[in-house]
Design goal:
Distance between the termini: 17 Å
CATH class of one domain: Alpha Beta
Largest sheet: 5 strands, antiparallel
Radius of gyration: 27 Å
Helix content: 55-70%
CATH topology of one domain: Alpha-Beta Plaits
Shape: elongated
Strand order of the largest sheet: 3-2-4-1-5
């Protein structure tokens, strides 16, 4: 009877109502902003709330409903799970697991890939996959370097393994939690739907992880080129040699007795002092207030135009050029040359690269830059930075340790174990097991158990109170809060039913399982250009209405959308973990498609057949 009623609902709306047309217009606006990234994702989410409330006569979203996403169970649960993931990461468990599994890998690419998948997928089933990948990038890079393998062979599989691993449990990804919330809301209309339990779809998730893992281990390395050579020379990889020079402070120079800041102000913004060499000792990434003396040799990073200017600059003499100066700089014992990846919540996102400002803020000297997989050779000053951009830097070891503990960058090198609260590891694991057990046994909802876990993390010292806020990806929280009222408007205005009616029109031509597969494919494609959370909010109501319209069970359709939304395999921008490996792997856009398209097609078939086998269609 529910299917018949839903069929009638869809059938009575073959044309657009004014309300539906307005809401679809807001959806188009959201899609445009997500795709073009003209505004940060969290700002776009806030704008959606404002637009929906302003257009209340048509959208039906009043102020209370507009901000309801902030108090939504899915939003608060995701916030709590991010904090719990942060607590786990502070203990070093993930890195230690990665090291131990990788110990046997040796020089075999397949063993290295198996270690990567085995260390990533199961963990991603219980921890947010974004911090998991951020923590494992240096571990996997180290595995590649020790095994004389190109990191390019391992880093995309690392990202993809985390995505499929997120489908093992309800808490594996924020997408699952949001889909559960939407499904619960739709349960009032479709009796087959409701919130997901902790291990609701684990049996299918295991199948997806096994099939995806086998593909990544046995196939992916044939499709991925060696963009970064094994044990690559960073200086050659970033073409640094042409832009590093030694400049001597000559006797009588106006810079003698002055400071680094005064010298760089005089020489220009394109000239950055990487090191000061005095009496054989090297000072790495000197501060502006560092004093200069006659005979000091300044190792500078600059561009071609400024390099020619230095040849005639008063008070300094060009004494070294190109490869010799660059390698001398890199070999300084007091400094480490490594890569920093701009992270999701970094204050660097959207700013223009200022070499001196970066040195002052982070204590590291920038030698090179890679954006969208391409090395920026000559002029790096003033380049606008984005998530996934990779900076080649030199910094003292203690500076890198400090940066590795922050949220602005991912340090693409192994960190010493001493910084982790290893003694708290058993407590953190016990708290996580407790959270999962309470939710699984349905003693309390996952929201309550997760929040209790957060309190336990602080009380036991796994997390310090000030670290709670650092562990949260606030743009994800704001995104959830913004798209939830959009989903309510999509359903309430009849826009979802209208879109579903278009799908229902194919029901008389295509078998139900093919329609199910089409929903999977469409969701996967949409996820490549907008957020996976946004695609779930937009498509779950449509999928449920379409299923009911063709007389099918809506639940399998909701599952198909949920699984597909976590499979952003075709490009680097569909999922943040893809961006994290973009720079360190030296990838190009096409590399993701080359290895991801067959995986996407394979998993679409496996997932749809698995849904049909376990739950029917």
């Amino acid at each position: 009877m529910a299917a018949v009623a839903a069929t009638q609902d869809v059938a009575t709306q073959p044309t657009l109502t004014t309300d539906a047309l307005v809401v679809l217009g807001v959806v188009v606006l959201a899609l445009a902003l997500f795709v073009t990234e003209r505004l940060p994702i969290d700002v776009t989410a806030i704008l959606l709330i404002v637009v929906l409330v302003v257009l209340e006569p048509w959208t039906g979203i009043d102020p209370a409903t507009g901000i309801s996403g902030f108090a939504n169970e899915a939003t608060i649960t995701v916030l709590a799970m991010l904090i719990l993931s942060g607590g786990i990461s502070r203990t070093g468990i993930v890195q230690e697991l990665g090291r131990r599994i990788a110990d046997f890998a040796g020089t075999s690419v397949r063993k290295q890939l198996f270690a990567t998948v085995a260390a990533t997928s199961p963990v991603s089933g219980f921890l947010n996959n974004t911090p998991v990948v951020a923590l494992l990038v240096p571990v996997v890079t180290d595995v590649a370097n020790r095994g004389n393998t190109s990191p390019s062979k391992l880093l995309i599989p690392l990202s993809y393994a985390s995505q499929v691993g997120g489908m093992l449990t309800l808490i594996g990804t924020s997408t699952n939690l949001l889909a559960s919330d939407v499904s619960a809301r739709l349960g009032a209309r479709y009796p087959e739907l409701g919130p997901f339990s902790m291990f609701e779809f684990t049996k299918l998730g295991v199948v997806v992880v096994v099939v995806g893992g086998l593909y990544l281990v046995f196939v992916s390395h044939y499709l991925l080129p060696e963009r970064v050579p094994p044990r690559a020379d960073y200086l050659e990889e970033y073409d640094v040699e042409e832009y590093v020079a030694d400049v001597s402070v000559v006797p009588g120079s106006p810079f003698a007795g002055g400071t680094v800041g005064e010298a760089t102000d005089s020489l220009g913004a394109a000239v950055d002092v990487v090191q000061i060499v005095r009496d054989g000792a090297r000072s790495i990434a000197p501060r502006r207030e560092t004093s200069l003396s006659e005979g000091d040799v300044l190792v500078v990073r600059t561009d071609r135009e400024a390099l020619h200017t230095l040849e005639d600059a008063p008070g300094v003499e060009l004494v070294g050029r190109s490869e010799t100066a660059a390698h001398r700089a890199a070999e300084a014992e007091s400094g480490v040359v490594t890569e920093l990846v701009v992270s999701l919540d970094s204050q660097l996102v959207g700013t223009r690269l200022d070499l001196e400002g970066f040195r002052e803020e982070f204590g590291a000297a920038v030698l090179g830059l890679r954006q969208r997989g391409a090395t920026v050779g000559d002029r790096i000053v003033g380049r606008r930075l984005d998530v996934g951009d990779t900076l080649l830097v030199q910094a003292p070891p203690d500076t890198l340790e400090r940066l590795s503990r922050g949220d602005d960058v991912i340090v693409a090198r192994e960190r010493p174990r001493r910084e982790y609260r290893t003694e708290k590891a058993p407590i953190a694991v016990a708290i996580m097991i407790g959270v999962v057990a309470v939710a699984t046994l349905e003693l309390y909802p996952i929201l309550v158990s997760a929040l209790a876990g957060v309190v336990a993390m602080v009380v036991t010292g796994v997390l310090r109170p000030n670290e709670l806020y650092d562990a949260v990806e606030w743009d994800v929280i704001f995104l959830l809060a913004g798209v939830i009222p959009l989903g309510i408007a999509l359903e309430g205005s009849g826009a979802a039913a209208y879109l579903a009616s278009l799908v229902v029109s194919t029901g008389g031509v295509l078998p139900t399982i093919v329609v199910l597969w089409l929903f999977y494919i469409v969701t996967g494609l949409i996820t490549e250009v907008i957020s996976n959370n946004a695609s779930v909010v937009l498509l779950v109501p449509v999928a449920a209405a379409a299923a009911a319209g063709i007389g099918a069970n809506p639940y399998p359709f909701v599952l198909a959308v949920t699984f597909a939304a976590s499979t952003a395999f075709l490009g680097p921008i569909g999922y943040q973990t893809n961006l994290f490996v973009y720079g360190p792997g030296g990838y190009r856009f096409a590399d993701y498609f080359r290895v991801g398209a067959p995986l996407q097609l394979l998993l679409s078939v496996v997932t749809v057949l698995g849904i049909a086998y376990f739950w029917g269609v």
